Amino acid sequence: MPATALILLYLGLALTPLGLAWAQGLPPRTIWDELASGLGLVALAMILVEFGQIGRFRAVTARVGSDVVMRSHQLAARVALVFAVLHPFFYVSAMSDPPDWDVTRQTVVTYSWTAIWPGILAWLGLGMVVTMALARDVAGYRYEIWRGLHGLGAALVAGAGVLHALRAGRYSGDDLLGWVWIAGLGLALAALTMIYVVAPALRARRPWRVLSVTPAARRTWRLRLTPEGAHRLRYRAGQFAWLTIGRPPFSLNDNPFSIASAPSRGPDLEFIIKQLGDMTDRIGQIPPGTRVYVDGPHGHLTLTGQEDAPGIALIAGGVGIAPLLGILREMAASGDPRPSLLMYGNRIPGQIVCEDELQALARDHGSEVIHVLSEPPEGWSGETGFVDAPMLRRHVAEAGRRDWLFVLCGPPPMLRTVEAALLELGVPARRILSEQFVYD
Ligand SMILES: Cc1cc2nc3c(=O)[nH]c(=O)nc-3n(C[C@H](O)[C@H](O)[C@H](O)COP(=O)(O)OP(=O)(O)OC[C@H]3O[C@@H](n4cnc5c(N)ncnc54)[C@H](O)[C@@H]3O)c2cc1C
């Protein structure tokens, strides 16, 4: 399903309750009351859809990428919060019991405490869930604790929100819309159950174990896994997986890492992991034989669908080399005849991962490898500085590579600079794939 179809699907889901309310044909109220109800209906629908907009559903991430899914999740959460916050303030009709003649509650707003308290709970809960997510880095919560609280908080908001709609809503009192809310809540909770219970239970039957952990570069490790049993991961070069290392499959401690191995080279998986925080700092001490659970493959950073691109340019910053190494390795292993270019930015030479293998790929497969160092040592003959517009002009535009496919992975500022420069050089947007190693 293309991205536009997903957007249309999203709008359809988010606006369905509003459409069903409108279709009831109830006598109109003041514009402010209608606006208040409309905001509430759309906010609640958006909250329920959020449960499907998380980067764990392969059917979605493989099409649009986890970056896009997470950005849309965050954007929709902010919009839903604004709608939900405004929702109670627009009502202008009296809050009281309706007079006997007003069976459609045209002149009043429901005020009973049993109807209102779930709304207050959902309203405050949504504010807390979104604020905690926005403040996560500043507040420094441990990722796993934050993740657990985020899931629980979201389930509470959804449950309370639906209860409020069913008890208080003028339109949600309708049977059809009421069932739509219950079905939506059921699907939202099913999505959580799928992620935290069903999928881990299935993964428990396909364990992996650590073959080796060896240094790959400065503060960077090469982790190799092998399946315990006959199963294997069916992935495409450039995709990533969530790894639960040395913990039970139901643990909240899983981290995403790009697969750096080539699928056609066998079932073993390789990851290039940079020390960054509490889990990755311990990666070098993981003993061989440690059990690992692999949730994947995810991600869209692959050559699939780009068979008509005449060449492949890979642009990596730091550990962003991991998925691109997988792509280069797969191109060599599968004999992809297209020319390839790797522009690989690092600070110092000690950070370059798999330098010998990259040289061998250049020699044997004809890939052009350009190292870019921002702090080059004396006598360095490669490119210096950062991968920027003038450098891309030389290696892309002047080298006649505008119609190639560009696959980018690295720190967000680098990706922004490179994407903007490529577009400026006339590379079509559909020929630029990028992934940042940030999942928040
Ligand atoms: C799609 C994707 C692919 C990635 N591929 C690689 C790779 O090939 N090699 C590599 O070295 N790094 C990769 N990363 C980054 C890697 O996931 C983080 O560096 C790692 O999870 C940090 O964990 P930590 O506990 O050591 O650090 P912490 O100090 O706990 O966290 C540092 C930051 O890492 C992120 N993070 C931490 N834990 C998680 C988690 N469980 N899930 C998601 N994000 C988390 C958060 O943004 C956090 O602020 C990738 C990230 C993503 C999103």
From TrEMBL:
* Domain of life (superkingdom): Bacteria
This entry's Gene Ontology molecular function terms read: 2 iron, 2 sulfur cluster binding; flavin adenine dinucleotide binding; metal ion binding; oxidoreductase activity
Give the main location: membrane
| One GO location term (cellular component) | membrane
Question: What PROSITE patterns does its record include?
Answer: FAD_FR
Organism, scientific name: Roseovarius litoreus
Q: What is this protein called?
A: Predicted ferric reductase
**Flavoprotein among the record's keywords?**
yes
What keywords sit in the KW lines? Answer: 2Fe-2S, FAD, Flavoprotein, Iron, Iron-sulfur, Membrane, Metal-binding, Oxidoreductase, Transmembrane, Transmembrane helix
Is the keyword NAD assigned to this protein? no
Q: Where in the cell is it found?
A: Membrane
Q: Which cofactor does it need?
A: FAD; [2Fe-2S] cluster
Instruction: Provide the transmembrane region boundaries.
Output: 39-55, 75-95, 115-135, 147-166, 178-199
What membrane topology does the UniProt entry give?
Multi-pass membrane protein
The segment(s) forming the FAD-binding FR-type domain are 203-304
